[in-house]
Design brief:
Pathway: Glycan biosynthesis; Cell wall biogenesis; peptidoglycan biosynthesis
Number of helices: 5
Pfam families: Big_10, YkuD
Protein name: L,D-TPase catalytic domain-containing protein
Helix content: 10-25%
Largest sheet: 5 strands, mixed
GO molecular function, one term: peptidoglycan L,D-transpeptidase activity
CATH superfamily of the largest domain: L,D-transpeptidase catalytic domain-like
Number of domains: 3
Distance between the termini: 139 Å
Keywords: Acyltransferase, Cell membrane, Cell shape, Cell wall biogenesis/degradation, Lipoprotein, Membrane, Palmitate, Peptidoglycan synthesis, Signal, Transferase, Transmembrane, Transmembrane helix
């Protein structure tokens, strides 16, 4: 200031503070773009990954620290265990297969062989275990696929394979009647096993017999090698019967396994029940509830009487040989050409044609060795005699009932004659 007046600044002069202000101004203009870029990057990171204070929730707020650490795609904690172990060989056909779940529940178990045949099984009520409802087949490879679910609904699965044992000793069941046959109302399903069975319940459970129309059917063991099935009363005419032998892999006795998996069926034809009155020496033939013929017969002589009881025709022969030596009569007779013979018992009881007795014998005298004889001629054939008529009118499975004979009732296992047991005895 000169004489109290301000001194004007010149273009070439400046103070230190002016210089500092100018310096800051230049620096600010030079760093502005970098600051903007850093801010944009920070905004981008915040938008993609969230800030340190937590992520926005559905309600616009922030998850707490615990929520922010949760892993949405965590693996299931359920553990599936299959016995036997994967790729096991020589596995037992019963008792070895089991599937379990730890830290979860089984939701699905599928077991099948190489042919795609499934093994039926059941998951326990608590979901902890699965077991088969049937035995396995021998010498067979199986695949297991099991799925379990943990408490969070996440699934865990296991796939394994194993092969069952190859049996060294086996058995089968030889059955009657034949597949596709039409038989009489008295025909049981009879199965004879090639080895004695010491595990009858297991073998019986492996066989199913069903009928259409449906009727209760039960099995009964005769000894340890024969199992018969029948309903309480004779089959109804027209019934369709199906038998399934699921014996493959069943241990019928220690170290002896079934090797048979087979189904067969048969049909019940018309109803025919014939009643022999040994005292009256007649046979009444009843077809579908109506008597169609009354035939004079000869039954067992006083020393060789005919069994009483219900008997089923099990075999038919147009001509056959009958030798007394084969049934305990020594050389009393040997007839090489007995016509129209139909077997009623394993021990040798037949209903058959008789050409060697006089025609007056039939209906008036009992002279046989225990069989039921009908008038016939030598050579058999369709000859019009009562014997030929009855032979042509009968089928395997028809019933012949003998009464009023001076003999005991035939044993139920002597032929296909289980009808001589009450239903209570049969099912016991």
């Amino acid at each position: 200031m000169v004489n109290g007046l301000p001194i004007p600044a010149t273009s070439g002069a400046s103070t230190a503070s002016d210089a500092r202000r100018r310096g800051r101004g230049r620096a600010g203009r030079g760093t502005a773009p970098l600051a903007v870029l850093l801010g944009a990057l920070l905004l981008l990171v915040t938008a993609c990954g969230g800030g340190g204070g937590g992520t926005a929730g559905k309600d616009g707020g922030k998850d707490d620290a615990k929520g922010s650490s949760k892993v949405e795609n965590a693996a299931s904690v359920a553990v599936v265990t299959v016995a036997p172990k994967d790729k096991a060989d020589g596995v037992a056909t019963t008792g070895a297969l089991k599937v379990t779940a730890g830290k979860g529940k089984l939701t699905s178990v599928k077991v099948e062989d190489d042919k795609g045949t499934a093994v039926e099984g059941r998951i326990s009520a608590d979901g902890a275990a699965w077991e088969p409802l049937q035995h396995l087949a021998g010498a067979t490879k199986y695949r297991v696929h099991a799925v379990a679910e943990d408490a969070e609904g996440r699934e865990s699965a296991r796939d394994t394979t194993f092969t069952t044992l190859v049996p060294k000793n086996t058995f089968i069941g030889q059955f009657t009647p034949e597949d596709g046959s039409t038989v009489g109302v008295g025909m049981p399903v009879s199965i004879n096993f090639t080895r004695g069975i010491t595990e009858p319940d297991a073998v019986k459970e492996a066989i199913t017999v069903t009928a259409t129309p449906s009727v209760p059917i039960e099995g009964h063991w005769f000894g340890n090698d024969r199992l018969d099935f029948r309903p309480e009363k004779y089959w109804a005419a027209g019934t369709k019967v199906t038998v399934k032998l699921n014996l493959d892999g069943i241990e019928g006795r220690p170290g002896v396994y079934g090797k048979q998996a087979k189904s067969f069926s048969f049909t019940i034809g018309r109803s025919q029940v014939s009643t022999v009155d040994a005292s009256a020496k007649t046979m009444k033939v009843v077809r579908d509830g109506k008597q169609i013929r009354n035939i004079p017969i000869t039954a067992g002589a006083p020393a060789t009487t005919t069994y009483n009881g219900q008997m089923v025709i099990s075999e038919k022969y147009a001509v056959t040989r009958m030798n007394g030596a084969t049934v305990g009569f020594g050389g009393e007779y040997d007839i090489k050409d007995v016509p129209h013979a139909m077997r009623l018992s394993t021990s040798g009881t037949f209903v058959h044609g008789n050409y060697w007795a006089s025609s007056g014998t039939f209906g008036s005298a009992n002279v046989s060795h225990g069989c039921v004889g009908l008038r016939d001629i030598r050579g058999g054939g369709d000859n019009g005699t009562p014997s030929a008529w009855f032979y042509n009118s009968s089928i395997i499975g028809d019933v012949v009932v003998v009464k009023n004979s001076d003999d005991k009732q035939i044993a139920p296992d002597n032929g296909l004659n289980g009808w001589n047991m009450s239903w209570a005895e049969w099912t016991k």
